[in-house]
Amino acid sequence: MVILRWVLVNNYGRYPERKQSFVRDRQKKYQMAGTKEIKRRIKSVKNTKKITKAMELVAASKMKRAVASTLASRLYAGYSWEVLTSIAKNIEENSHPLFTEREKKGGVKANVLLVLITSNRGLCGSYNAQVIKKTISFLKSQNINLDPVRSRSLEHESATVTSGRPASNGVDIVSVGKKGDVAMRRLGVNVVATFADLSNNISLTEVVPISKFTIDEYILLHYDKVLVAYTDFISALNQKPNIKQILPVSKTELQDLINNLAPTPGEVGVPTESVGREKSISYLIEGDMNTLIGSLAEKITRMQIYQMLLESNASEQSSRMVAMKNASDASGEMIDDLTLVFNKARQGNITREISEISAGMASVS
Amino acid sequence: MSKQLKLKIITPERLVLEEMVDQVTLPTTEGEITILPEHIPLIAGLASGDIVAVVNGEHVPMAVAGGFMEIKQGENKITEVAILADFAEHVSEISDEKIEKAKARAIELEKQMENKDHVDFEHFEAELERSLTRVKIADKWRTRKYRK
């Protein structure tokens, strides 16, 4: 027996130390266990592996679709940006509330609305944890500078009174997806709205309520800034949680976003910097300029939220895919280990039986 | 060959159409306009309705719901018309089956709208307009000839 164990341990020499002790523990645990029990265990691990494998494949195909739609919206983003800059050149862009930075006097904190995009379902690795962690650290950074008195600037007092909305820490949350909602409520942050019933294939109409809500709240002066916490899809193996400002529409952020959309600039008809911008064209504008700009800004905001949802969706699926791949791999290893233990136990039984029989024979003869 | 303009119809979901056309008629917020090649640069909002492009005397109708259009002189002196629509679909894509669905959906949405709160209402409004536009435009083009 001792020799047998020595052989087994040596066989595991290719595993790191941690793994070795783990395997040894498992062996100890099942040493005395009957073969039947080990067999049952193997069966259950095999079933788990089947499920994780299926989930991996599903996530992979969903990811492909999500990435494709992310790329498809790139063209629209590029063009709407172009139209915006064309208009902005002609007029004083800061005349519209969606474009103006609201200055805060006397160190009064701006009220922030944070849209947190997470998934509805779990089993997707650290996807939700990462973006929630990012949000929490953002909230902490806000709280440090927080005035002890929950004060709003005088000019906004009237708006506050009419709204009757509780001003929490100057940061309110709109949660998209159940996981983030649960996490934020647990933290006791003020969640003003929840959107949890988005489908896997997000369409633009589903984004309308979210963008409408945020824009309305912003225009009513309830908030001075609207941020979105989402997960940036960099590659299938790499996603980065990110917080971006969407209102007021800041040109640099928007430009960044659009540049990020195109991995290689100028590809697939995305209007590049130079086209149509070097020569300033004076556009004839039909209809009222301000309403036009207003609705354009709304569309751009909606487009941005849509884009971020797509990115987050792609990230979710890819991190689920990776998590499920790891799980299937781990269960594969576990099956190997357990099979080894099972064989060992079976061999042990046979050896014991033989020795019993031969001992019996010896005593008889 | 006579001059043509470059028409692009783009939605957030996809590039619906990119083609050289002779002229295009579209519904703006101020009323219907027809654009011919060499049009001066123009920016306008779009209403719901149909965009009709004309290629070699054939009509190419598209259903749209809301958005923007931009006309500019592109490279090689070609007039470019970019339409950024929230929703756009070629009329031939709207089959009878889809129309029935859209009608049913519109009725259902109208019912649902009565007992929904404000936030959901926005969603339904957009969906409803989309469904109604589909039905209207499909009915309009049912008896006419157009290029598939």
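The interface with chain A takes residues 8, 10-15, 18, 28-30, 33, 40-45, 67-68, 70, 72-75, 82, 84, 86-87, 119-120, 122-123, 126-127, 130 of chain B (CB under 8 Å).
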